[in-house]
């Protein structure tokens, strides 16, 4: 069965800390350039819910492109990233742990849909 014109999702999401790099699909690499989490901590009353901002770099060969993804009150959790005239759909699924739940390093879970 041909998949011409259709996009194939990666088998799994990739979860990385700030500075982390991993292979996603079709030879593309994803890097978390920055991860800032200002969401209201658990069991705290806040005036603003806050947001998690993640800047990712998607690259393949010499082609690369950066985009910012946001979770929170004004979400912008999806983006189309173009590399060598091919469009990858990038989705920020979560940033864990939620503030106040743990002192572990935050990770961003991203899913990339391949062209």
SSE inventory with pairings:
Layout: E1 8-9, E2 14-17, E3 21-23, E4 29-37, E5 51-60, E6 63-72, E7 78-83, E8 86-96, E9 107-114
Antiparallel strand pairs: 1-9, 2-9, 3-4, 4-5, 5-6, 7-8, 8-9
Quaternary organization: single chain
Q: Strand content of the residues, in percent?
A: over 45%
Count of DSSP H/I helices: 0
- Number of strand segments: 9
Cα Rg: 15 Å
CATH fold-level name: Tick-borne Encephalitis virus Glycoprotein, domain 1
In the CATH hierarchy, the architecture is: Sandwich
Helix content: under 10%
CATH class: Mainly Beta
Label the structural class: mainly beta
Order of helices and strands: EEEEEEEEE
Sheet with the most strands, sense and barrel status = 5 strands, antiparallel
The end-to-end distance, rounded to whole angstroms, is 16 Å
Low-confidence stretches: 1-5
Mean pLDDT: 87
The coarse overall form would be: elongated
- Our count of domains comes out at 1
Which descriptors apply to this entry?
single chain, mainly beta, Tick-borne Encephalitis virus Glycoprotein, domain 1, 4-stranded antiparallel beta sheet, disordered N terminus
Describe this structure in words.
The chain is elongated and about 45 Å long. The strands form two sheets. Strands 1, 2, 7, 8 and 9 form a five-stranded antiparallel sheet that branches. The chain has a four-stranded antiparallel sheet with strand order 3-4-5-6, with no helix packed on it. The protein has no helices and nine strands. The chain has one domain: Sandwich (Tick-borne Encephalitis virus Glycoprotein, domain 1), CATH 2.60.98. The chain has strands spanning 8-9, 14-17, 21-23, 29-37, 51-60, 63-72, 78-83, 86-96, 107-114. 0% of the residues lie in helices and 55% in strands. With 115 residues, it is an all-beta fold. The two termini are 16 Å apart.
């Amino acid at each position: 069965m041909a998949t011409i014109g259709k996009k194939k999702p990666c088998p799994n999401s990739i979860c990385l800390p700030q500075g982390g790099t991993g292979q996603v699909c079709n030879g593309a690499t994803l890097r978390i350039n920055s991860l800032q989490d200002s969401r209201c901590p658990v069991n705290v009353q806040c005036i603003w819910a806050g947001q998690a901002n993640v800047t990712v770099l998607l690259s393949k060969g010499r082609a690369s492109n950066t985009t910012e993804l946001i979770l929170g009150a004004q979400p912008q959790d999806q983006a189309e990233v173009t590399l060598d005239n091919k469009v990858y759909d990038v989705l920020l699924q979560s940033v864990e742990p939620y503030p106040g739940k743990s002192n572990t390093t935050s990770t961003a879970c991203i899913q990339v849909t391949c062209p």
